[in-house]
Amino acid sequence: MDQQAQLGELKKSAGWIIVFGVLMVLFGVFAVMTPLLMGAWIVMLIGIVLCVGGVAEIAHSFQARSWGAGIWVFLFGLLALVAGLIMIFRPGTGFGFLTLVLTWFFFLEGVGTIGLAMRMKPQHGWGWTLFSGIVSLLLGILVLSRWPLSGGLLIGIYTGIFFMFKGWGMVALGSAVRQATKEAAEPA
After folding, report:
1. pLDDT per residue over 50-62, tens digit each?
2. Residue 24 lies in a domain
């Protein structure tokens, strides 16, 4: 593939990054405007994933080579299934646990995004990426400082804020890629 074709592919990728960034911002705005709905939706979505995984593990347990190994897989599958059903039918119960999981997610996402920003520096858009990582870290601190009272409402609000800033970071990254391809395409 020649250089012009590669630049064209990069520019197309930049456009998709920007589109996904804008969609994330819009989703974040929706989440902030409907925080309880978003919090309950997240808990129920995780419940569905746990149920599907639990059923798969239970089915897999019957294919185990030994009874001892199969019983453990079965029990863990049953535990995942029960936890998923509780989260689906009683989402309030899952808020406390999910709040802790979300806190770790915000911390890890923040550290990773800050690391990405440091690698991007001094490219165009690195500051927005850094800001996005700092916001993620701050959200993790805020959620943890309000735990266990920070259930569904804060899950929805903070998740919305996360998506808004992550989206803006993606828009900045896509714009930086677009700018870099534009500069690379210009004759020297």
Report:
1. 999 999 989 888 8
2. yes
End-to-end CA distance of the chain: 21
Place of tokens 């009272």: 149
CA distances for 55 relative to 45, 59, 73, 75, angstroms: 16, 6, 11, 11
Within-domain flag for 83: no
Residue 64 belongs to some domain of the structure = no
Identify the domain containing residue 159 by its residue range.
3-38+95-185
Measured between alpha carbons, how far is residue 166 from residues 21, 25, 40 in Å? 7, 8, 21
- Cβ contacts of 143 within 8 Å, gap of 6 or more: 99, 102, 103, 106, 150, 154, 155, 158
What tokens does 54 get?
């639990």
Q: What is the DSSP string of 66-100?
A: SHHHHHHHHHHHHHHHHHHHHHHH-HHHHHHHHHH
Q: Is residue 8 part of a domain?
A: yes
What digits encode the pLDDT tens for the residues 54-111? 999 898 888 877 777 778 888 888 988 998 898 888 877 777 777 777 788 888 989 9
| Residue 118 to residue 112: CA distance in whole angstroms | 10
pTM: 0.59
